[in-house]
């Protein structure tokens, strides 16, 4: 596979109403303007990298600027490559007449022959995020013998996301792996709204095109007057040796995107009262013993989740004012916050800032223009209106809420949830619904930046019904990402194991929710689910036995002993990418000479398996059980010559898991 000038795929494709495509299809390849673009110069600053180190340093490197021009339409393109990985393209109308844009790729690249390529792509939905598959690209791009026809093909494998759940159905990340050379290219579209990526076969080889919203997919258009410019959403492309190498390069790039924040060094353990615990019904009486138990387990943040702002449990369509309930907290929410703080924990609160319930007093206090609209009518989804963050009244309301809660209660952690999707967008003050949505998406990112400018120590968790908006427009700014709302501890591990393909391990918060009715092996199983990422604790710890609480404390202590390494690890999958129903699952996080290895045995699994740890091949190693240490031991046999670890269990519980640390023998 090659990413070079060997294929004639234009670097930028531009679809306009007045020019269209040069070859009829629904592709973002071979647009008329893309064909006519000619090189107009380049410049560079700094020292662009070629994909990043395996650990990431936060240094995004220099910039390369490539200029293209179409003399007929007057459109000019400037492609900016930052750090050798991230791309943005700015289209400027240098001609005398307006041009109606219908789609602009952030970038497009030629791939060479496709016969030996595998495509790795991800599906997801609520409760089932990050389900990845690897298939030959030929399954999506059949061999049509294009050469005998002398024309490019018309088909393509296009993956799109609509609305604002940017990862709600498909992943903006993908990988192409050359089975023969081993070279792999990984990409991600970094946008908190609609996007599109596509791949397929041209007459001269394969291609990959990455884009934000388009007319055909997302009702987007932009009239570009003379002298005006439009900049695409960013996307990134990273190259490495095989799947693991390309993901390592993309992992390094993601670390370089992150906003500086004290959370990156601390990675505190968060306890949240929601999942399988209070479930949106917090009160002082329920919270105080839970706070004490969470502190005893070693939690460092305690987040009060949904329900704290309403007197009953029918709050779904009345949210929006974000004032503490007097009924739930007779002596005020401050009593709960003071108890959290008395244990040395940081107090946190759940917010869903972008919505206003249809029964909320704020629905009438804010002007109609502060909400997303279609045809002059406020959009309603599941009993909520959606704020339009282009409007100053919407922004002022949210700023007041955040600043008040930080100043009044000393909140240091917000779980920012997002449980509706407004669809195509808003046509208020916009040429099309998709154009209004893009401007709203960008205004949302600016709002997040300003929050953190005002409160630089405030930690923000990104949640959207779990992992429905886990893109790197959001995650470059926010410190923690909820990976799912999955309440079945048996079904959560494949989500957690797959997460590092799309989310940095130190940001990927997978729930560990041990319960009093669980066996010891089941408690360890759910604890392990959260430990090779950002440990996100819940469960009725206050109702557990001393023995059970000690098992939880042991897991928290084990996580705290390794968390300093997490922000430098790269993922490996010793059993391949996880299948939803796989009986065995495994995730490795590799850092220098140390590999942290998670193994989950599920219903239907045998008592033994062999894991591929070829990155350790040829070295004698020591296998250490990090967690759980006091449950029944498993047996481990290392084969240095092949880099394989055979694990044998003798447990009768169908659900069991272990976290190992593997290092060279001293």
From TrEMBL:
Q: Which CDD domains match?
A: GH36
User: Cross-referenced InterPro entries, in alphabetical order?
Assistant: Aldolase_TIM, Alpga-gal_N_sf, Alpha-glycosidase_related, GH, Glyco_hydro_36
Compositional bias, Low complexity, is annotated for 41-52
SUPFAM superfamilies associated with the record: (Trans)glycosidases
| Residues annotated as transmembrane | none
Q: Give the residue ranges for region: Disordered.
A: 38-62
List the keywords (alphabetical).
Glycosidase, Hydrolase
Q: Does the keyword Transferase apply?
A: no
Q: Which residues form a coiled coil?
A: none
Known PANTHER family for this protein? ALPHA-GALACTOSIDASE C-RELATED, GLYCOSIDASE FAMILY 31
The name on file for this protein is Alpha-galactosidase
The species is Actinoplanes flavus
